[in-house]
Design brief:
The chain is mostly helical. The protein has helices spanning 2-7, 17-24, 40-47, 63-70, 79-86, 93-96, 107-121. The longest helix has 15 residues, at 107-121. It binds calcium ion (4 copies).
Length: 122
């Protein structure tokens, strides 16, 4: 019985219940503990994101959106990307993304995004 208990995977996400509870602290009855749209298994083993947080790096863009929608790094905050999104510059992200390497938004970067903002309006 003990062996059976140790191999059971209730939610079928590829991680054993015993590991979910003791090792990863994820919900053994839910494939997607934090509800961000990415399975616990993929978060832990593929993307290295936090299976308990929908937004691993805390930049207010969910893990799912970073990986599948914007192609940004879900493990590193992207202040410029966030800033651009807040200004409705989704289609200019390819210009903004290279700016965020240091995880900080300096003055020039801010001005650059503002410039895009202005262009968009005209
Ligand atoms: Ca499981
Ligand atoms: Ca998840
Ligand atoms: Ca997550
Ligand atoms: Ca994020």
């Amino acid at each position: 019985m003990e062996i059976y208990r140790d191999t059971v995977d209730s939610d079928g996400d590829g991680i054993r219940d015993v590991d979910e509870v003791e090792k990863y602290h994820t919900n053994p009855n839910s494939k997607d503990t934090d509800g961000d749209g990415i399975d616990d298994y993929k978060e832990i083993f593929v993307y290295k994101t936090n299976p308990l947080k929908a937004d691993t790096d805390g930049d207010r863009i969910s893990d799912y959106e970073e990986i599948f929608k914007y192609g940004t790094d879900p493990l590193k905050p992207n202040p410029n990307v966030r800033y651009a999104l807040d200004r409705g510059l989704e289609s200019y992200l390819f210009l903004v993304k290279p700016l965020d390497d240091d995880g900080m938004q300096d003055k020039n970067e801010k001005e650059f995004v503002e410039l895009l903002s202005e262009n968009k309006k005209s």
